[in-house]
Amino acid sequence: MSIPVLKFDAVIVGAGGAGLRSAIQLSEAGLKTAVLSKVFPTRSHTVAAQGGVAASLGNSEEDHWTWHMYDTVKGSDWLGDQDAIEFMCKKANEVVVELEHYGMPFDRTDNGKIYQRPFGGHMSNFGEKPVRRSCAAADRTGHAMLHAMYQRNVKANTQFFVEWMALDLIRDEEGHVLGVTAMEMETGQIVIFHARATIFATGGAGRIFYSSTNAFINTGDGLGMAARAGIPLEDMEFWQFHPTGVAGAGVLITEGVRGEGGILRNSSKERFMERYAPNAKDLASRDVVSRAMATEIKEGRGCGVNKDYVLLDITHLDPATIMKRLPGIHEIGLQFAGVDCLKEPLPVVPTCHYQMGGIPTHYSGRVVVPKNGDANTIVPGFYAGGECACASVHGANRLGTNSLLDLLVFGKSAGDSAVEDLKAGKAHRDLPKDVADKTLARIAALDNRKGGANVHETRLAMQRTMQDHAGVFRFGDMLKQGVEKILEVEKAARQLEIKDKSMAWNTARTEALEMENLIEVAKATMISAEARKESRGAHVRDDAPDTAEFPNGRNDKEWLKHTLFSPVDNSISYKPVNMQPLTVEAVALKTRSY
Amino acid sequence: MERQDYERLRWRCIRRALLELDITLTRFLDDGFDQLSDAEQRVFVELADMEDHDLWYLLSGKTECDDPRFAPLVAKIRKS
Ligand SMILES: Cc1cc2nc3c(=O)[nH]c(=O)nc-3n(C[C@H](O)[C@H](O)[C@H](O)COP(=O)(O)OP(=O)(O)OC[C@H]3O[C@@H](n4cnc5c(N)ncnc54)[C@H](O)[C@@H]3O)c2cc1C
After folding, report:
1. What is the pTM assigned to this prediction?
2. Which residues of B touch A46 (CB under 8 A)?
3. Does the ipTM surpass 0.95?
4. A20 with A154: CB under 8 angstroms?
5. A43 interaction partners in chain B (CB closer than 8 Å)
6. Which of A44, A114, A296, A328 is most buried by a 10 A CB count?
């Protein structure tokens, strides 16, 4: 069968913040650039970001990029690469001001400067006191950002392929990346995008967990494609959780609810936080609350048929106060839990929010893999940025507002690096003869299989396994079982069956293809988490507790290193953390406490 | 509605930028959409075309729906 080939200088998979930012660099450099997206660009998940983007502009009070750098290293629990972190924090002002020039309607101060507000973990003077560093556009920061960048791309003649799904990365025998295979959803046709530079900006994969704040689109396609092409995934054990998402739905319940007097209860209605944090109780820090909730659930004191959530009770509060101080919470309860929170407690569970790991990249946006003893060998023609990539600036935990910054800085630098590499010459390399064979075989298998596994059931089994065995607080025995279980789920995920065989708009097929990506991410997460025998940042293990020798359970002697999960044989290797910033002194190791 | 049109609409409802909409619209497609008249289904397609934040504010009651064509449908979705 002959498959159409479309030739571009660059193909970018993803039209969220990172993809659009990369595309601007390439198109404005006069290169022929295609951007593929499963949805219209301004429906990408970046739209959900409301909090803002960090930059030490110092518009409201004194600030400096070195302070921002310090906060980011500390937030990462020293797992972030300090060269990449310096690069990002130093570039922040430039990329935010550029956005302003693209027409982003930032909130402003009376004298017309970008207004800045405080955000958790961002401090002045190396951790002294909170600083106003976050730049926002009302409650639509992500949305406004995408609009501004989309318009800029239209002007620069970027070619958009909307409602196209990239399926597999194309690599030749020498390992060069030559583009992707993709499916046009409207027709079901498979097409080859042959490119001299391929940039992944496919976003996160939070849907591997049962409870996730991520929209359904976050299925980790970029990670799945990379894994199938033999690229290892970095630091996949690190996922940021939020303590209170609506059980079963994932929709966030603001921490303000506990601030206003909300109480967490277990199946016997006990106010369990009194046991874990006798003073702060329900107002203890995020990690303490999440851990307590996870422990209650693990020890059988969860609620519901599956005993898999706890209750957030505000029935003792004055209804008028609730409606005034916590607008939206009543509606969220009704819509997503079927509960009137004025009369009944809300079911809640720690909920996955952000993926710190991803496709390993250098801060230039080039993808790097271990080869011949060098842990950071460039994969020619391959770049990545945004949540699918691991630069690594977030290390073991991300600071709020740093991910929008990440996608601007590394989206741009991936674009710049691609421009630089493309200008250096080199024609399109020849496509391998079997270029689309694997993709076609996957699709044919889905279409022809009888008696295979159901997509929804398989996804649910994966999500439950991840939630129970590799959630916010992890237990050695549960992780071990989790590895076995996820490998079982993987078998089903490799044998999916779909009933609908139509070509056009076959959403069943699309969801099956997404499932094949999710399972790669889930497996990498579980195996990487089981292997890391310390607690660090968002990876917290019951069997690596806080001791005098290992404060917070962190063991720098053995574990100050990045995990690399190899999808080829499910094996793990490690590479050193870069502790050497580009121009300033390193942020020395310290216990992380706030 | 033709299969193709329905499946296109379905994709545009189950892959939104906001999780709240993914859940709300999927639920409505699964049990409510079928009972709409052809005319109502066409209005739904237009409604689903709105920007995510605007649509969510309508469906969550945060903003009043002042378009008489959308109001009855918004009320149905809110009840589903
Ligand atoms: C509720 C919520 C609130 C948040 N608030 C903030 C905040 O205030 N500040 C902050 O800094 N961060 C915030 N974050 C995190 C931040 O929004 C994300 O990390 C970031 O937007 C990811 O951007 P991205 O460009 O990497 O990916 P996305 O915006 O997710 O875009 C991914 C793109 O890839 C495309 N794609 C994926 N797979 C394929 C495929 N196979 N083929 C074709 N296209 C594909 C999609 O269509 C989409 O266009 C928040 C996250 C959530 C969930």
Report:
1. 0.97
2. 17
3. yes
4. no
5. 15-17, 52
6. A44
